[in-house]
């Protein structure tokens, strides 16, 4: 019995005490504008994204999240921007975020009103730098510098 309890605790630790893997998307429209979504939970602007589901690869999850949150179609991967893993980057839990920039088509809208209050395209000079959620300021700065980071 003691062995079973120890094994169960070890298994639960392996399953529950690990960072969650997610993706963030920097959606770039044909005119060069960037689409952001306004989060319902904190009212701040954010990159579309979310948790990678079991059986998904990163680009499939990014494409799904972008469609679910902003109603946009992914045309193709532009580049990997970075992997962001600081424990405090997401105030809800420890998550590792793989951020990609993609070319997109469509008119942004709040496709999931349970999570998103608004979706809007911003010219690079008009991005709401002071109203970004999580660590998305760093993601966008790295994107505009043309860097690929491991942070």
Automatic annotation (TrEMBL):
Residues 15-144 form the Nudix hydrolase domain. This is NUDIX hydrolase. Keywords: Hydrolase, Membrane, Transmembrane, Transmembrane helix. SUPFAM superfamilies: Nudix. Signal peptide: none annotated. Belongs to the Nudix hydrolase family. The chain crosses the membrane at residues 20-37. GO terms for molecular function: hydrolase activity. PANTHER family: ADP-RIBOSE PYROPHOSPHATASE, DIHYDRONEOPTERIN TRIPHOSPHATE DIPHOSPHATASE. InterPro entries: Nudix_hydrolase, NUDIX_hydrolase-like_dom_sf, NUDIX_hydrolase_CS, NUDIX_hydrolase_dom.
